[in-house]
Amino acid sequence: MPNEYTTWGTGFGPKPVSSIALTPNDRAAYIGVLDQTLHVVATGQGTPAGNFGAETGGANPQSGPKSVATSPNGSLIAYVRDDATVVVVSNQFPVYISNHHLDRGEFVSGTISSLRESDDQYLVLGPAPPINSQESPIQMQFFTTAPIRPTGLRIDLEAGVNALNLVQTIEIYNYTFGRYELLDRRSASIDDTVVTASVHGDLGNFVSLGQSQMAVRVSWKPAGPVFVSPWLARLDYFAWKVVP
């Protein structure tokens, strides 16, 4: 059994843990006394799977978590604070883009790193000349490495366009069958819109063996006449949300 003072502790020197709970999917949620932060680790290795320090600890230790429990299926973590509140958080954390490839289209402005925050700092893409009506003039692939084998997975995309009559598509790569599968297709919005696309089925199909890579493809194409030239797609936020 891991020694909580040397393996799962927090801070420097003695590293006490005030409360711990186990989930059915072999994760441990614990509270570090020194940093007053809720941590989630993979049991067996003590590998960090995520933490909630940004919202539960730090500047005011008295508002930090004091006792922790998990839901029966491990998808939710609840903790009690000294200020007489109970907080429930989803047992998931964001995984960001580590690599990308613009299959069709062109970069207009912005960078991939701007997609880590929803802050109106956009990655703007323009269309390539159409080859045929089946091709998407803007198509981009995003890649990352899964830190763990997920028990839950979803894709979050915040994006918008500057013209009507455009369709936005999100697909995820199935490594078992060697093809992209549709997650979400809808009319693209003029306003920034957050799309949450949940992944169902055997999640192991969407994580490559050995390298643990995950891939998503996003695309935009006209659904009919577009009366703005050039029409553009702007992305504000993108992440995989992983449940350990």
The major pleated sheet works out as: 6 strands, antiparallel
- The rough form would be described as elongated
Oligomer: single chain
The H-and-E topology, N to C, reads as EEEEHEEEEEEEEEEEEEE
* Alpha-beta content class: mainly beta
Question: What is the C-alpha radius of gyration, as a whole number of Å?
Answer: 21 Å
How large a portion of the residues is in β-strands, by DSSP E?
over 45%
Using DSSP, what is the number of strands? 18
Number of helices: 1
Give the fraction of residues assigned to helices.
Answer: under 10%
Tell me what the structure shows.
The chain has one helix at residues 53-56, and strands spanning 17-22, 27-32, 37-42, 47-51, 65-70, 76-81, 86-90, 93-95, 99-104, 106-109, 123-126, 138-145, 152-161, 166-174, 179-187, 193-198, 213-222, 233-243. With 244 residues, the protein is mainly beta. The strands form 4 sheets. Strands 8, 10, 11, 13, 16 and 18 form a 6-stranded antiparallel sheet that branches. It has a 5-stranded antiparallel sheet with strand order 9-12-17-14-15, with no helix packed on it. A hairpin with a 4-residue loop joins β3 and β4 (47-51). It is elongated, with a radius of gyration of 21 Å. The two termini are 20 Å apart.
Compact overview of the structure:
By secondary structure, the chain is mainly beta.
Give the key terms.
244 residues; mainly beta; five-stranded antiparallel β-sheet; 18 strands; elongated
